[in-house]
Amino acid sequence: MSLITIALGIVLFLNRVHVDKLLDRKLFPVTGIEVFEKIYSSIIAFGAKVGDLTRSNSPARHLAAPFVLLVLLAVAVFASNPVIPDFPAPVTEPIDWLLLALLTLGVIGMVITRSRLGALALLGVVGFVVALLFFQLGAPDVGLTQLLVEVLTVVVAVLILRRLPRVFHKVSASRTAVTATIAVIAGATAGLATYVLTGRREISAAGDYFMREAENETGGTNVVNTILVDFRALDTLGELTVLGVAGLIIIAILDSSGLLKGDRDERAASLKKTPIGSPVGNTILARTVGRWLAPVLIILSLYLLIRGHDLPGGGFISALVGGAGFALAYLSASRAVRAPIKLPYVGFIASGVGLATLVGVLGFLDGSFLRPLHYNIPLPGDGYYHFTTALIFDVGVYLAVIGVILVALNRLGVEEEPRHQIDSIDPHPEPPDDAPQHDAPQHNSVPDRTETVTGGRR
């Protein structure tokens, strides 16, 4: 067979002129490269057309699709004339109506105010009332999460609002009427659907199974946490990955776009040497409280992390508590150069997602990905500590969430100022917290001197 192949090759080589002419002739009207390029460019053009549907900075275009879908679903449901059973038991108490009234007032105030900061404050009030509703309904995990998310949302939003105008831009009366009508319709539809479709049946089969078997299957008594890190850990891992990627995207966009450079409020610069604009004087209370409260919050977050499998807590809630401690430490800093928290937040995100994934791989030792492993650690006497790898999974959640919070604080916060600018703004810098206190100099008896910085030497 080899001899035949060699002989055939020699024949083709000797007749290579004719063979080349045969191979070079045009067999088809187009080439394969042209076909590939055409398909490729068509796919890119189609993707651009699809992206154009939502490629806009207008909230109206983004809200149009869910609004239309919500209305169509409502029409379809009520057109089918569903059977609506009665409530099995009373579902409201007097305090519920009080909280609902506070919620309504907060929403109305948030809608009519023109101040961005006022709207943010009212949004925080609305979130706080929602958290109280969750506590009233007997869901401490959800209520605590809602409360902490509201606190951190307000903190991050304030860091962004300082770069925006104080008031919202004016809109025409006709646009206000149209948007108000749409908002009322959407809210009424969602509220009516919630009233009709929830609370009218007994606990579902899945819910009953979780309530009965959670402790036997996972060793934990906090059903909410066992669902998050045991029964549906894959969903939690996916959400954690999305959160970590969002933190990395914040870093990439801000580093590459320069959006936060050179956009200080001009009024802030004019107030630098006044009591109103003094960062040292305005942070006395925060520094006094934060010096003791921030470490307490971080220690409390670790306690909530450890106990989360049995009592209200867990990786996400504990990370929010720890994030609140870091936010307090950040906001209580007297200067921009002292505000950033010098921790490897990118490393936190990567190690958190990686640790949670590694715990999932360990689950193969018991048959499947993300299946928790359990071990009873003997304690002195007849007791034992029930250890589960779900706790390590929660540690991964904790690290990743803390990392994202630190990204938001450090990257969206106040930018650092050059040293010579700090000296010119505050010629009498704040002494360390443990430095001995001295009487303030009398400015009318000491001449004002301005030092000049030239060529890097003083």
Explain what the structure shows:
The chain is an all-alpha fold and about 450 residues long. Helix content is about 65%, strand content about 0%. The chain has 18 helices and two strands. It is extended and about 100 Å long.
**Mean of pLDDT:** 81
The count of helical stretches stands at 18
Shape: extended
- Tell me the number of strands: 2
Taking all Cα atoms into account, the compactness measure Rg is 31 Å
Helix content: 55-70%
Poorly predicted tracts of residues: 418-458
The neighbouring-strand order within the major sheet is 1-2
* Beta fraction: under 5%
Oligomer: single chain
Distance between the termini: 89 Å
- What structural class do helix, strand and pairing data support? mainly alpha
Give the SSE string: HHHHHHHHHHHHHHHHEEHH
Largest sheet: 2 strands, antiparallel
How are the SSEs ordered, and which strands pair?
Elements: H1 2-14, H2 16-24, H3 32-52, H4 59-79, H5 94-112, H6 116-136, H7 140-161, H8 173-197, H9 205-218, H10 223-231, H11 233-257, H12 266-270, H13 279-282, H14 284-307, H15 315-331, H16 345-362, E1 374-378, E2 384-388, H17 389-412, H18 419-425
Antiparallel strand pairs: 1-2
Helix pairs in contact: 4-8, 5-6, 6-7, 7-15, 7-17, 9-10, 10-11, 11-16, 11-17, 14-15, 15-17, 16-17
